[in-house]
Amino acid sequence: MSAVFSRTLTFKTKAEGLGADATLMLTFNDPDVTPGLYHDKFPVCWKVTSFAAEGPYSMKATYQSHLAFVKPQVEDGSNTIVDASTYKSVNLGDETKLTKDTKGVYHFSNVTPGDAGFLEAVNGCPLVEDIAIGFSKPGSDEDPTCVLYFGSVGHNGFVKAQFTPHLRAYITDQYQETQIIRGEVDTPMIWQRDLGQLAQSTTWFLTYNGATGEFAITDTDT
Fold first, then answer.
1. CA-to-CA separations, 62 to 66, 145, 181, 189, in angstroms, rounded
2. Is residue 90 a contact partner of residue 70, using CB atoms and an 8 Å limit?
3. What is the rounded CA–CA span in Å between residue 89 and residue 110?
4. Between β-strands 129-135 and 145-153, what pairing exists: parallel, antiparallel or unpaired?
5. pLDDT per residue as tens digits for the range 36-94
6. For residue 4, what pLDDT band results from cuts at 50, 70 and 90?
C-alpha cells in the first residue's frame, strides 16, 4: 500500500489587506491528469472562502492521500453532495463492487486486486448509480471529502480512474463547497500545484493588482 501523506495549505492576504473583495475556490480539475473531465466524470468544489478588501484574512485546507470510493447523496436542485450512503477505503490497484440489498441499503465489497495504478469500482446494482472518489483522514469517523464524481454508471458498468492531487485555484463566487462542477470554470485559473510535490505545510499569499485587475497566488518565500 502506498504511504499516506498529508498536505496543509494556508492561503492568506498581507497585513495591509487585499484591496478588493474576492472569493477563492479550490478544486481538483486538471484535465491533463484526469482525462474525460466534464464528460463522464466531474470535479467537486473542495474549498470556498471569501476575502474582504480590507484587513488580513486566511483560509486553511488539509488534504489526506487516504482515498475512498463513495456512494454519494446528492441534494436535488443544489447539485451538491450532502452525505455519503457508504464508502470503502481503497489504494491504487484496488477494485471494489457497489451493491444494493433488498432493503435498499448500499454496500461496497471488500477490495480485490485490480489494474495496477488505477482505482476501480463496479456498479453491481440493478439500476444506474452515481459513484464518487474522496479522501479522508485515516482512522477518522467522518465521511470522505468527495473530489471526483461519476454520474450515471450503468448496471455492471465500472469506474476506473487514476487520481493525482493537482489542485487549482480560481477567483469565483459561482460555486459552493461540495458542489459538483458540471462544466469548465468560466474564470481564469490563477494557481496550480501537485500536492504530492509540496512540503507537508505551506503558506501562500493571495494578492490583487489594482492596475490590471488580476489576482495572483505566490509562495510566501518569494
1. 12, 11, 20, 20
2. no
3. 9
4. antiparallel
5. 899 989 999 999 999 999 989 999 999 999 999 999 999 987 899 999 899 999 999 99
6. confident
3-state secondary structure of 118: coil
Nearest to 100 by CA among 120, 85, 116, 81: 85
Neighbours of 146 (CB within 10 A): 25
Angle at alpha carbon of residue 37, lines to 137 and 83, rounded to 5°: 40
Q: Which three cell numbers stand for residue 173?
A: 463566487
Query: Grid coordinates standing for 158?
Result: 465500472
Q: What is the rounded distance in angstroms from the CA atom of residue 45 to the CA atom of residue 100?
A: 28
pTM: 0.94
Each domain of the chain, given as residue ranges in start order, spans 1-34+44-63+165-221, 66-163
CA distance 37 to 54: 37
**Cα distance between residue 91 and residue 68, in whole Å:** 8
Question: Which CATH number is associated with domain 1-34+44-63+165-221?
Answer: 2.60.40
DSSP 8-state class, residue 19: S
CA distance 147 to 164: 11
Sheet holding 201-209, edge to edge: 58-64, 6-12, 201-209, 214-219
Phi, psi of 132 (to 5 degrees): -135, 160
The answer to whether 130 and 86 have CB atoms below 8 angstroms apart is no
CB 45 within 8 A of CB 177: yes
